[in-house]
Amino acid sequence: MESVPVRCPVCNRDHAYSTPAYPCPCGMPTTPPLLRDAPAVRVGHRSWNDVWVTVRCSSCAREDQWPQPELCCPCGTVLRIPVRPVAAAPSPTSPVSPAHIPLPRTAAHPRPTFRPMTIRTGHDAVIAAGLYLTWLGYRDVGRPGAGPASGIDLRGDGVIAQVDSSTRPATLRAVETLWLNALGTSAAGVFFSLAGYAADARARADGVGLPLFVIDLTGTPQPVNSPADELVSTGA
Fold first, then answer.
1. Composition bias, kind Low complexity: at what positions (predicted)?
2. Looking at residue 217, what is its pLDDT?
C-alpha cells in the first residue's frame, strides 16, 4: 500500500496518507498513483466530477474511474491528494467497439425458466427484481430491514440492488452511488430500471463492471451491458 506525507496548509499538521485499493474487474487490486512531491489541495468547493480520477490497472491496463484520494484533517479541512495523470493510450486508429455485444449463455448449472410477474406499481418492480436475483442464485434476497437506504432497494447474501421505477432513465449519479455502496459493503451491485439508462450512466457502469438490467412491464429483466450478460451466463 502506497503512503505519502501530507501537510495540512491550514493548521500545518503532518499526516501519513495511505492509498486505498479498489478491485479491478480483472480481479487485481488497483490504487491511484500518488504524486509524492505535490502538496495536498484544500477542497473548498466540491462537484460530482471532481471526486473521480482515471486509474490504469497495472495488470490488465484497463482504465477506470476511481474515487479521488482525499484526507480529512482533524482541524476540519478536507485535503485532496494529487494523483499522477494517466498517459493517453497510443491507439488513435483502434476500431470502435459496439456499445453492447451480448455474451453466449454458458452457465455451468442450467437454471429453470424465469417466471416473471406483471408490473403495475413500483413495489411490483422491486419484487420482480428480487425474484430475478434469487433466480440468478443469490440467497436471502429482500428489502433492507429499515427500508431503502442510500438507494439500496434490495439486499441479499453478497449482493445489493437498486430498482429505479421512475419514468426517466437512471442517472449517472444513481449508478455511481450504487457502485460505491457495493464497494463499501464488499458486495456485488446490480441495477434495475424500468426506463433504461442515460448514456453517461451506461458508460460508467461498463467501466466499473456494474450489471444493468431493464425490466419491462411483464416483469422480465433484460441485460443491457456486458457485465449483466456475464452475470446471466454464470449466475451468482
1. 89-99
2. 83
In this structure, are residues 150 and 181 in contact, taking their beta carbons and an 8 Å threshold?
yes
d(CA 58, CA 54): 13
Which grid coordinates belong to 31? 490504487
Q: At a CB cut-off of 8 Å and minimum separation 6, what does 130 contact?
A: 141, 142, 143, 154, 161
Residue-wise pLDDT for 145-202, tens only, equals: 644 445 688 999 999 999 998 888 999 999 999 999 888 888 999 999 998 999 999 9
Q: pLDDT (tens digit, 9 = 90+) per residue, 54-86?
A: 888 888 888 877 777 887 788 878 888 888 887
CB 188 within 8 A of CB 88: no
- Domains parsed from the chain with CATH numbers: 3-80 (no CATH), 122-234 (3.40.1350.10)
* SS3 sequence of 131-162: HHHHHHCCCCCECCCCCCECCECEEECCEEEE
Residues contacting 167, CB < 8 A, separation 6+: 194, 195
